[in-house]
Amino acid sequence: MPKSKDNYHHGDLRAALIKAGEAVLAETGVTGFSLRAVAKRVGVSHSAPAHHFGDAKGLLDALATEGFRRFLAAMEARQAAEPDKDARQQLLASGLGYLDFAISSPALFRLMFSTDKPEPKTLELAAAAEASFMHLVDGVARLRGTSPFEAPAAMNDVMAIWSMVHGFADLYIAGRLGPLDCKPPEDRDALLKEILERAMV
Amino acid sequence: MPKSKDNYHHGDLRAALIKAGEAVLAETGVTGFSLRAVAKRVGVSHSAPAHHFGDAKGLLDALATEGFRRFLAAMEARQAAEPDKDARQQLLASGLGYLDFAISSPALFRLMFSTDKPEPKTLELAAAAEASFMHLVDGVARLRGTSPFEAPAAMNDVMAIWSMVHGFADLYIAGRLGPLDCKPPEDRDALLKEILERAMV
DNA sequence: GGATCAATCTTGTCGCTGTCAAGATAAATT
DNA sequence: AATTTATCTTGACAGCGACAAGATTGATCC
Lengths: 201, 201
Hints:
In chain A, 73% of the residues lie in helices and 0% in strands.
């Protein structure tokens, strides 16, 4: 009975694989990512993941999808923690959440923005990514009082702000922003805010 | 004789492997990158690359090194093509070169900024990356009239400008800047210029 | 000029990997 | 209770990185 229960019908194998997959991704990066290592960590056979995710890309897509959800949650969390509900301050807070997520899950962050947009394949992934994008669009809409989809200038603001926070986050997790390494997180956040304000004109 | 000459002592196998490696990297990305595929493309045995590069990371490091050199060359090329030698216009031109390179070699660009800065291991790679960084620092120094290493405000400018152009390039090659897809390259360059000027205060 | 040596490339092997096919087990359905 | 379906295991295959051992070539030395 226990053996059967342990081996077969794990109960929530899909969720367990995603959790373990995230751990493996964080430890080895996407290049060292191994489907068999994920299966071994959960304690199932090497071929168990196939039934839930198809191939390796299927699991990575699921990880990216979950990543975008937590990504959005990180931005909203920083917004909620910001007492000033002004559109500008809220947008800056989103940027800090953007950076929070990139720092806490750099490998997942890189996976999410790895160049495979052309064919999202899974609708869930496309939807989760789109939701993150819309969060930024909404923030700019509140700041400008116009929808970026109708006002080209506002869409330029979206791309400027996104480029700024994304570039900062990507360079930071690449260890390229050396001057910041020996400084406390408050300085890092302050610098991102100062820099982000430039993108808002 | 011909067989011997062909198989042994290729003459410039190292350069040939780098060239083929770049092609494989461009086609398959870093995840699908295979040392054996590179060897097969050149027409040597599967273990030939080991003598020149040690392991797979050795070849990737060499590719990244070569990438940083061409990266710097791309920025300088755009600067040379810019008739206005004003510090600001020259810095903007560098940004266009930055984007040129990312678009022409997205996989290589990603490899160069993949998070392995902590231990460059190969001095050549560290030197090539540093040279690119210094190019940006020099550009800002000319713009501000002060060395960013002495003036913290100027170093903030460096990080702001770098974040902006890097984020724009990274999002662009990820296919995330949808609104630009159906527009001509001139519009893309114009937008990057407009956005980069924000980073210069 | 011939022998020795070092550099270069090949072949063979090992364990690990993704993917597929076939089989076993448990839950759901009828 | 029997059958179907979903879930997981086992086994196999080719491709991979890495290592060891051997083969070939060019260079060095006397």
